[in-house]
């Protein structure tokens, strides 16, 4: 599985899925958990003190962990290559 390092990488990875498909985040391969995604922000633009921070800082988009949904299902773990 290739890494996703940019917004373009993420858009390309999602391009062939139906836009109405639910989106989840899986974490901790040894104890796989499922989450929704939370906020999406860009720094320094979205920071309250962006004018002070913008001194040459390159923009970075941040995705946050949303609600914890419990364990990631076995099908997700299998597709991710996470084996117990």
Total helical elements: 3
Write down the secondary-structure element order: HEEHEH
Uncertain runs are none
The oligomeric state of the chains shown is single chain
Describe the structure.
This protein is α+β, with helices and mostly antiparallel strands and 84 residues long. 23% of the residues lie in helices and 31% in strands. The protein has 3 helices and 3 strands. It has helices at residues 7-14, 50-53, 74-80; strands spanning 25-27, 33-43, 60-71. The protein has a 3-stranded antiparallel β-sheet with strand order 1-2-3, with no helix packed on it.
Task: Give a quick rundown of the structure.
By secondary structure, this protein is an alpha+beta fold. It has helices at residues 7-14, 50-53, 74-80; strands spanning 25-27, 33-43, 60-71. Helix content is 23%, strand content 31%.
